[in-house]
Amino acid sequence: MKEKQLFFCKECGTEVTKWQGQCPGCRAWNTLVEAPAGQAAKLKTKAVTYSRLKAAGKDIKKPLSISEVKTSDEERIPIGLSEFDRVLGGGLVPGSLVLVGGDPGIGKSTLLLQTVRLLSSKGVRTLYVSGEESERQIKMRADRLGDFGGEMLLFSETAMGEIINAVETVNPSVLVVDSIQTVYEEGVDAAPGSISQVREITGTLLQLAKNRNITVFIVGHVTKEGNVAGPRMLEHMVDVVLYIEGDKTAMYRILRGVKNRFGSTNEVGVFEMQNTGLVEVPDPSAYMMQGRLENEAGSVVVCAMEGSRGFLIEVQALVCRTSFPVPRRTAVGTDHNRVNLLMAVLEKRIGLPLGDCDAYVNVAGGMRVSEPALDLALVAALISSHTGRAYDADTVFVGEVGLVGEVRAVSQADRRVAEAVKSGFGTVVLPESNVEAVKRSSNVDLEHVKLIGVKHVRDIIELSRQ
Fold first, then answer.
1. Is residue 457 within 8 Å of 379, Cβ to Cβ?
2. Contact 363, 313 (CB under 8 A)
3. What is the pLDDT of residues 131-179, one digit of tens each?
4. 357-363 and 329-332: which strand pairing?
């Protein structure tokens, strides 16, 4: 009998019985690939009834009342990288499955090599499994990071059965699999990296982590849209999902927790890529503000929030007359359409003639910011560049701008002001609706900051004339 075939979407993992040009799940074109369905049928088992288990004399697991369930704080293993520990919620939880994703060359393997190096130096046995590099290649790359202890073991293998045998032999506390797309299960009739293989391997590693109470890291490649390659359910199966973000041409890297069953997802870690690996950045605001020229028209500072941490970032704008019929608008580090919208607000609500001007906006440092609190800084930079008047160098702008020109409240305003004060800025321009709440907050030292509340974008022009 001919084996039944299914078609899987490479982007989202949607299964269909017939090939289609467009995926019905993610609407992407030409992403469906053929894979055998026989393996799924082999994994199905018959239901075992209560009477059969009782007759066989086997223990029967019964549901428990929630009041009978005993809880305790998770035992955590601190890594030694404070930025990594912050994102994880305090350290590694034994028995957890952690997925680390990111673009090629962004630093996934480097970060995990540093992690196992620090853990092995504390006497924690770690096993680093690579399906992409040999032990010699890993050693050459690891020599740049420093000395490794004897508790760090290397294994170059792609067969899942051999990896399980190695785990049972050396009994590590931490296992790293780099990467999930290179490992294969011999019983699955599909190529390594396919939907079936990734799903089966992840399920096996999940059981391995829970049964042996070890922490398992798996490295996942990402698609062009920035999602981990493979079925979407991969992120639902694991306990923690981490993404390493940043432009490969820039020096900084941001470690962001997208999912964390053992802690908050509102934390990010900031690292700097150097020859010796990823170095922690304890003060991201000072790092982002390096090289800023003060009292220059078109340059303002905004405090953006990444999780529960504030970042001071310079926003630059260049507005000039164009000799072409259609003005050119370019935005780097923020949404291009948002810049066009704010320019339309300025032209309509306060009569600023921008219709015949080119506009170039840049979020300095290579960081991408998309939150609404950036609006007021963009407006101030555009006005400053157009009028040629610079704002005071110690001023920070925070606020969301609506279509009628109103300045609306933003979240975590007190933390934004506190971050500005900590970095030495003396004036914060923010929505008037946030001023009273900031004054009542215990996080802000009001003796060292001047709060200026604004209701409309026309108030920003008045500030630039002072």
1. yes
2. yes
3. 888 889 988 888 888 888 778 999 999 999 999 999 999 999 999 999 8
4. parallel
